[in-house]
Design goal:
Amidase_domain, six-stranded mixed β-sheet, PGRP, Lysozyme-like, two-stranded antiparallel sheet, N-acetylmuramoyl-L-alanine amidase activity, zinc ion binding, binds zinc ion, PGRP_domain_met/bac, alpha/beta
Length: 272
């Protein structure tokens, strides 16, 4: 499938001249989903219009350059009206040829995925902690992801959220939990088939607690042991000893000591 998403280029939205351009070409492994953490409709910055979308892109670039970045940090912006705008200069050209450009949207924090800034980052207008994206914006996100996966030869399973790379809430809990659905719709467009398990990937972090079993529990037990909290046998079964170790770790880290290894505890352990 060719790159079919319609993208408004930097020259079309009147971007300011970037510093240090042209940016280095990179080989991308992921597509990384963000939210802009702005207000949602009816108070969305772009108001769903094309002129609003262009103005929003200019404002974001201006904000990023004011914090001494060379240009917009992301590669694409997807607005509430379903308009897709190029972010960092050269992004569209690069992805159409199977590459990306070095960007600044997903720096790596400890224990997280690496090389986010070498892969295309999509900013989605809004705050998606609980708010659900409207249909137009969702459709353009699917279209853009399908185009990127196709032209850059990226597996739809490698559509990730910003929080997979950095210690952040981005792209919001609701949107992050939609990633399996996004992967599925992109895979469908590309004629690829994956199992439910594969589509889920690491994106739905379930709480690990008394009674949990499996590979994630083994990872948790190993990390607890590394940190000096003995979980008993490293057997993938979350029993009393593992619970006691989680509680002791939580107390030492100043977290609520409930014995449940959710996102906060696992982030603190560096395994979220
Ligand atoms: Zn982000």
């Amino acid at each position: 499938m060719p790159f079919t998403a319609k993208v408004i280029t930097t020259s079309e939205w009147g971007a300011a001249e970037p510093k240090n351009a042209p940016f280095k070409r990179t080989v991308p492994n992921y597509v990384i989903v963000h939210h802009t953490d702005n207000q949602n409709p009816p108070n969305d910055p772009s108001k769903g219009t094309i002129e609003g979308a262009k103005q929003f892109a200019r404002n974001i670039q201006n904000g990023h350059m004011k914090q001494s970045w060379s240009d917009s940090g992301h590669n694409f912006l997807n607005t509430t009206g379903g308009f897709i705008l190029e972010g960092r200069h050269g992004s569209l050209d690069a992805v159409e040829q199977g590459f990306c450009v070095q960007s600044a949207h997903a720096a790596q924090d400890q224990g997280k995925l690496a090389n986010g800034n070498q892969s295309p980052g999509i900013e989605n207008e809004g705050n998606f902690m609980t708010f659900q994206m409207g249909e137009k914006q969702w459709e353009s996100l699917v279209e853009l992801c399908a185009s990127l996966c196709s032209s850059c030869n990226i597996s739809p399973l490698n559509i990730k959220g910003h929080r997979d790379f950095s210690n952040t809430d981005c792209p919001g809990n609701w949107l992050y939990n939609q990633l399996p659905q996004l992967r599925k719709q992109v895979a469908d467009q590309l004629g690829l088939k994956f199992t439910e398990e594969e589509l889920k990937n690491s994106s739905q972090l379930v709480d690990l607690k008394f009674g949990s079993t499996g590979a994630e529990v083994i990872k948790l037990q190993k990390r607890l042991l590394d940190k000096g909290f003995n979980p008993g046998a490293i057997d993938g079964a979350f029993g009393e000893n593992t619970e006691a170790a989680v509680k002791a770790f939580q107390r030492s880290a100043g977290l609520k000591s409930d014995g449940i290894a959710g996102i906060k505890t696992r982030t603190e352990l560096g395994i979220a």
